[in-house]
Amino acid sequence: MTAAEVAANRTALWFAKQERQDELAREQCGGLVEQALAGQLQDWLGEPEGWLATLLLLDQLPRMIFRDTPRAFAGDALARASALRGLAQGWDQQLPPIQRVFVYLVLEHAEDLALQNQAVRLFQALTQEATAAEHELFAGYLDYAERHQRVIARFGRFPHRNQILGRSSSAEESAFLLEPGSRF
């Protein structure tokens, strides 16, 4: 199955906000997410597939399981540190391109411009590597990375997280949040 076929079948699961999916994630993965957040899955970080699984448990799944709460971002620091260690070892290159997306998303979720820049570079490389049939898919992921990068370059943080994290929004951020497509 090509990356485009996998994405076509899974995009709603991966990125849509659906209450039932969040419940299923909580039921099926909640215990593992708690273990990962507590640093109890360090032995998974010894090879690329375990590294990817840990990143998913620290980054993507908390965003579903703890949606609209501060805990949605509780694994971000651990995910970033783990992602950077694995990237330094070249583990992303040992994964299929569609799986690399979830490694690079860890950087794309960071409220740090240097990490945003790195995410964009990685998505650019992924897009350049894509076959003709998959180019549009990976170009779409690159577009999203560039949109995230622009928000961080402008505000230094994601304004759509402010309310959840108890942060005050500036007037400029409040105006931005009224724009279509301002929330990820």
From TrEMBL:
Gene source species: Pseudomonas spirodelae
InterPro entries: DUF924 (IPR010323), TPR-like_helical_dom_sf (IPR011990)
Gene3D superfamilies: Tetratricopeptide repeat domain, TPR-like
UniProt protein name: DUF924 family protein
